[in-house]
Write a structure and sequence with these properties.
With 208 residues, the protein is an all-alpha fold. The protein has one domain. Helices cover 81% and strands 0% of the residues. The chain has ten helices and no strands. Helix 2 (23-34) packs antiparallel against helix 3 and helix 2 crosses helix 8 (147-172). The model is unreliable at 100-105 (pLDDT under 50).
């Protein structure tokens, strides 16, 4: 299996995984539409940092660690599921507090670091990501991959994530969308909160 085919396989599979809406998408969209493009960008940077961490972990076989010590996987899954549910509950609470002036943009009360941290934690709170990445590597990597190949693949995955979520920020920071968001903020945040609670509950209740 040559390097070109390996890279194309990773790009195609990871692109589909990234554009599929999930917690990373919703947290990026919500931060951008509610606060600012800059807030969304730092959430994206946090998400991409998480992607790099999970990618290196997957490349070096964290799945084997999960198999050898199942309690680590279980602990990460419970912690991640609870965190995502917490984010969902906070969104639902905020949607209930939204008043008649919801069309007025909110200033970002969080620091750039806080937004970066939120993106990072949202990304790494799901250990299933590591399992998916490990499975991806197992299916596309040659028998004895080099360190250069691993670095190249991780870089590609980070670039794909950065490109897609930056596009999400660009769309959700447009004047038209921001106006629409602030007009319907109560319902959109409530919907996003329900989605987050659903993701977290699925993570907690799924035995696989």
């Amino acid at each position: 299996m040559n390097l070109t085919f390996t890279l194309l396989s990773v790009v195609s599979i990871w692109s589909i995984a990234v554009i599929t809406p999930g917690p990373n998408f919703f947290i990026t969209a919500q931060a951008t539409a509610k606060h600012s493009r800059l807030a969304g960008i730092f959430v994206v940077l946090g998400t991409c940092t998480g992607t790099i961490i999970w990618s290196f972990a997957g490349y070096f076989g964290i799945a084997y660690l999960f198999i050898a010590a199942p309690w680590i996987y279980t602990t990460l899954k419970i912690g991640g599921g609870c965190y995502i549910i917490y984010l969902g509950i906070m969104l639902i609470i905020n949607s209930c507090k939204s008043g008649a002036k919801s069309d007025i943009p909110h200033e970002n009360s969080q620091s750039n670091f806080s937004n970066w941290w939120k993106g990072l934690i949202t990304n790494i709170s799901n250990p299933k990501t590591a399992m998916f990445i490990t499975s991806l590597f197992a299916s596309v990597l040659p028998k004895e991959p080099t360190v250069f190949t691993g670095i190249l693949i991780v870089t590609l995955m980070a670039v794909i994530s950065l490109t897609w979520y930056s596009f999400v920020v660009l769309i959700f920071s447009s004047k038209i969308f921001r106006h629409y968001y602030h007009q319907t903020q109560k319902w959109l945040e409530g919907f996003a909160g329900i989605i987050f609670v659903g993701f977290g509950a699925k993570l907690l209740l799924n035995n696989k």
